[in-house]
Specification:
The complex is a heterodimer of chains A (241) and B (126). In chain A, strand 4 (174-182) and strand 5 (185-192) form a beta hairpin. Chain A has a five-stranded mixed β-sheet with strand order 2-4-5-7-6, with helices on one face. In chain A, strands 1-3 form a two-stranded antiparallel ribbon. Chain A is α+β, with helices and mostly antiparallel strands. Chain A contains five helices and seven strands, in the order H-H-E-H-E-E-H-E-E-H-E-E. Chain A is 57% helix and 20% strand. The longest helix of chain A is centred in the N-terminal third of the chain and has 58 residues, at 6-63. Chain B has 126 residues and is of the alpha/beta class. Helices cover 45% and strands 20% of the residues of chain B. Chain B has helices at 15-27, 38-48, 64-73, 91-99, 112-125, and strands at 7-11, 31-35, 52-56, 81-86, 104-107. Classes of the chains: A alpha+beta (241), B alpha/beta (126). Chain A binds chain B through residues 42, 45-46, 49-54, 56-58, 60-61, 64, 66, 89, and chain B through 14, 16-17, 20, 23-24, 27, 58, 87-88, 108-113.
Amino acid sequence: VSSPTPADELDEAPARAQAHLELRLENDRLRELDRTRDEFVALVSHDLRTPLSSILGYLEELQTDELGPLTETQRRFLGVIERNAQRLLGLVGDLLFLTQAETARASLATEQLDLAQLVADAVAAAEPAAADNGVELSVEADAGVPVTGDPGRLTQMASNLVSSAVKSTPQHGRVVVAVASRDGDAVLEVAGTGISFPDAGLEVAIARAIVAAHRGAIDVESTVEAGTTVRVRLPEAAPGE
Amino acid sequence: MSDAAPLILVADDDQDLLGLVVYRLEAAGYRVLQAHDGVEALRIAQEELPDVAILDVMMPRMAGPEVTRSIRADDRTKSMSVILLTSRTQEHDVAEGFNSGADDYVTKPFSPGELQARVGALLARR
């Protein structure tokens, strides 16, 4: 095998410069695409918030009773409209967060947190929905699992995973949530029994983006016999860090 | 201020949202003027000299912050209280709103009752 002579290298130089240029153009194109998408999402978010503003504002006026007394049923129905409008508003915020998390890394607070406590709160919040769906929901947690991160976003991540597990588990099924320290990682497992598949919807996509923004990993195991387990690993905060 | 109820200008290109704010403020006993774009809002602000102007940030022909700057640049209107309405929550948007000279900032979706309370607070400061 002969080593390249200086003359060969000279021949290669123009080809390498060409490849370099093509790579740079491709990068510029991708950046431009990111920018276009961000602008599009900002616009969509504005255009969705304005009608939601009217829906929620007129609802507030109806619920004050100033326009006449409401029956119990009317009040309950208005409550359903409000809950769903609020949900839609949350999704608009999630959509915006998702795009920002992928490109510029959304602005995250960094605080020393107990993942076990945060997950226990998320499970408590999902209990009414689990009861409605006839799903048994339980949590097993180590005492104190320290992580560093954004409390609001990590709570949202845990809530999204627990709530999508509850929704995708059939009636009389079981959802088991576990939090533990393992090999320097804080590990959260959400397991749903029965034949269920991870919700491919926005809730799980948001959870993925939040985990990625915290430099963690998320994986999903699904079998017909055992059901589905979503496992999140986050770097554990050193004690006293 | 005269004995008459305070005069409030509301400008938004979304007719439903405009109607909501007008309804809430009239129910609270204020006199209310309406505009559907920024140019109309500035003209009414200069002609009618309302006590408070509530301006949407994204309006056709002239955006809310620009209307605010024009209000501040005119001796007749420069002490008018201005509230901006926005659906954008990014920090630089909020900063732009305050830099233009607005007194307060309300993010959509907002509660009509809360907006009314903020109008009341600005009038009390005058």
